[in-house]
Design a protein that fits this description.
- The protein is of the alpha+beta class and 253 residues long.
- The protein folds into 2 domains: 142 residues, Fructose-1,6-Bisphosphatase, subunit A, domain 1 (Fructose-1,6-Bisphosphatase, Chain A, domain 1), CATH 3.30.540.10; 99 residues, D-Maltodextrin-Binding Protein, domain 2 (3-Layer(aba) Sandwich).
- Helices cover 30% and strands 26% of the residues.
- The protein is built from 7 helices and 14 strands.
- The strands form 3 sheets. The chain has a 7-stranded mixed β-sheet, sandwiched between helices. It has a 5-stranded mixed β-sheet with strand order 11-10-12-14-13, with helices on both faces. A two-stranded antiparallel sheet has the order 1-2.
- Strand 3, helix 3 and strand 4 form a beta-alpha-beta unit.
- Helix 1 packs antiparallel against helix 2.
- The longest helix is centred in the first third of the chain and has 17 residues.
- It is globular.
Length: 253
């Protein structure tokens, strides 16, 4: 494996060099629509390129599955079906926010070995927050060990969901603000109780699911199967405990 702090240092350095200088300074030529409603910027492509080089250099023999690389060549996803180490990279999660100079964006990195997420990093460059988790070692923000919020009655729970019609009258507050990375940070820093995601791409969720579990949370696909770091159309629900997960599940299906 690798030293988590060495990976964290690389993420910070690439964010400082490739992402933050472009934040709030993008020209029209540095933003394009790769699919209807899906933006990509020069920060996404350059950060992924540099992260790929530096992370594979840190772990010789490893491969990369990056959001922008897969957009160009979907066959790259096949690396996740193999046993070799794979870096999963989302260079700028929340690109729509980034392009609008909204600070709710982040870098997400996961290290998968033998189809299992072994470590995850989520970095909020604007606030300088780095959340890190290794399998079996807890989730950390600097020297502080992170924990999910305690289970609460439904009417006191807050969450992140895209479709909230069934939840609005049952819980305290729901919403979504354009960055899965920040939802995961919020889940382990006392802001959110739960989150539901319908479109599961590995660069959005591999690191976050591990971080949430290492902070004591409970998650599962809505079909009751465990999450795996591969593309999936089954919904994912994260909650403070299995009991609260079951209470929420009937409202998000």
């Amino acid at each position: 494996m690798v030293d988590p702090q060495s990976v964290a240092a690389i993420i910070r350095e690439v964010a400082e060099a490739e992402i933050l200088p472009r934040f709030g300074h993008l020209s029209a030529g540095q933003i394009r629509e790769k699919k209807p409603g899906q933006l990509v910027t020069e920060a996404d492509t350059e950060a992924e390129r540099v992260l790929s080089l530096r992370l594979t250099g840190l772990l010789p023999g490893s491969k990369v599955v990056g959001e922008e690389g897969v957009d160009a060549d979907p066959a790259l996803l096949g690396a996740l079906e193999q046993s070799d180490p794979v870096w999963i990279i989302d260079p700028v999660d929340g690109t729509g926010n980034f392009a609008k100079a909204n600070p709710r964006f982040a870098v997400i990195i996961a290290l998968v070995v033998d189809k299992i997420t072994r470590a995850g990093w989520i970095y909020d460059p604007v606030a300088g927050r780095m959340v890190v988790a290794e399998q079996g070692s807890g989730a950390w923000l600097g020297g502080d060990r992170l924990s999910v919020l305690a289970p609460a009655p439904l009417e006191k729970m807050t969450g992140s969901v895209k479709r909230s019609a069934h939840l609005v009258s049952k819980v305290a507050k729901v919403g979504r603000k354009g960055s899965a990375a920040h939802d995961y940070i919020d889940l382990v820093t006392g802001v959110l109780h739960f989150a539901h995601f319908a479109r599961l791409m590995p660069w959005d969720h591999a690191a976050g699911v591990l971080i949430h579990a290492e902070a004591g949370g409970y998650s599962s696909l809505l079909n009751h199967k465990p999450y795996q770091p591969i593309p999936c159309k089954a919904g994912l629900l994260l909650a403070p405990s299995e009991g609260s997960w079951r209470s929420l599940k009937v409202l998000v299906e």
